[in-house]
Design a protein that fits this description.
The protein is built from 4 helices and 6 strands; from the N terminus they run αββαββββαα. Helix content is 40%, strand content 26%. It has a 6-stranded antiparallel sheet, sandwiched between helices. The chain starts with a helix and ends with a helix.
């Protein structure tokens, strides 16, 4: 559903059944506000489920079922760039997590970047 708000500047979309679809104007506002405030997630209430949107993984997760779908921010040709960036970000965090789990030198104090990345997964 596209309204005047979703057409003004960048807009968020979710991939549903193989198609990229704009969020409603209300959800656009929630996502923009959270993103602009530097939050890593935003909560959305749909008609049939509650969702959490992660700006780190660029995914929307159904809180009841746990199923996730990709999201993106688009404005013109930005759609392809956003898709590439999402894949690169996932790869980076997978590498960090793999390195963290293999490392025997991680501090036991719960401090440093090991704690930060552990909290994200």
């Amino acid at each position: 559903r596209s309204g005047s708000l979703s057409r003004a500047g960048p807009r968020f979309q979710a991939e549903v059944a193989g198609e990229w679809r704009d969020y409603s104007d209300q959800h656009q506002s929630v996502l923009r506000e959270a993103s602009n405030a530097g939050q890593t997630t935003a909560s959305l209430q749909g008609s049939s489920a509650d969702y959490e949107v992660s700006f780190w993984t660029m995914e929307q997760r159904d809180l009841e079922s746990g199923l996730s779908v990709p999201i993106r921010v688009v404005q013109g040709a930005a759609a392809d760039v956003q898709s590439q960036q999402r894949g690169q970000l996932r790869s980076f965090f997978s590498d960090v997590q793999a390195t963290q789990s293999k490392s025997q030198q991680a501090p036991q104090c719960g401090c440093g970047p090991w704690n930060l990345f552990g909290a994200l997964f």
